[in-house]
Amino acid sequence: MASIQPTSMGAIEAALAAQRSFMSRWGEPLEQLLSVGVFLVPVQEEEDDHAGFYSQAVYSATDLFNLYRTVLLRSPDELPVCEPSASGTVCATGSSSPQLRHLRLTYTLAAFALRSIRSVQVLLEMHAARRGGPRHALHVCLRIEVVKLALKMLLRSRMPFAFYVDEDAIEEVEPPKLLEQKRAMMSSLGQTPPEGAAGVAGSSTFVGRRSGRALPALEGSGDTSLAVAQPPPPRVADGLRADSTPVGDARLVAAELLHHSRPLLHLLLLLRMGRKSWVAWWAAFLIDRLSLAFLVPQVSPRPGTRAAALEVAEVRRRKNLMWWALARSPAFDLVLLRPCQILDRVLKRIPVINLFNIMELFLVLQPNYFSTSGS
């Protein structure tokens, strides 16, 4: 493959810089506008929109916009990607080798592809259900899960961790928009933040994960500009391998096999026994529970390190996904369907609030597999 000419590279960098500048200025208000639009699109009861297709389309567009903005704002040095060498995996800082740049690029593309698929997977399922019925939709879901699994394995091969750490967990701990906020603050002080800096420390400033809005701390006194002027440690991959949970434990391997195979096994049971099957529900629940039982005792990163924060966030993400079992049929139909319908009727009687079809949208999307899959 021919190498990229310097002039072409300069044009690409200029284009990215222009997009980054646009997102820095207009990204947040556009994202907020799209977020509000999700709940203002009416959920039709007619044949052409019986599952809230247009509402889901607005949500998917909002999520894709947010993902693209995140990719533009993220520094390559922040990616948890390590370079393999003859002596093992090296997580180096400083000048990047061509191999490390290639690994970072493939990681970024795979992570963006995985999260983009998650943004549109409900739309793909609803489209498949319209064309071929519920069973055909489950077959499409199965193929989508296979693609997602392949992307997860690609990401896992680039990471220095003993188990898969999802991008959602990484973004929870290290919001890329934090760096944007840090640059804006230091720019207002006439300073240049160091490349790859993480931003203002969490103890002094809270930055929303999605919005990127910074809120100053309520406690403390003194000149806050001095605190802002002090750059925190950069978020780099250096030391992740040494600080993370050791590789090789059989229970970690079992936990990973169960966690990543659960969506496929669940879909196969749904195809065989139907969406209302208690066997499929219990199988998915028990597989997830058993995976956590194997994983949690084996997670042992070095305390107080970046690796510890990311691994703990991934464990917390997997625990939170367990709650989606309550939103899956038939457990949802037995326990939560009636209360949700009552709440929906109450909300429709309240002025202003009845403009936002939050509960109605959830009720019409709940029967879809990807609405509650947690994968």
Automatic annotation (TrEMBL):
What is the similarity comment for this entry?
Belongs to the peroxin-16 family.
Report the domain of life of the source organism.
Answer: Eukaryota
One Pfam family, please name it.
Pex16
Query: Does the keyword section mention Aminoacyl-tRNA synthetase?
Result: no
Provide the primary localization. Answer: membrane
Name recorded for this polypeptide: Peroxisomal membrane protein PEX16
Keywords associated with the record: Peroxisome, Peroxisome biogenesis
GO terms under biological process: peroxisome organization
Q: Where in the cell is it found?
A: Peroxisome membrane
Question: Could you state one GO cellular component term attached to this entry?
Answer: peroxisomal membrane
Asked if the record carries the keyword Transcription regulation, the reply is: no
Q: What InterPro entries would the database entry show? A: Pex16
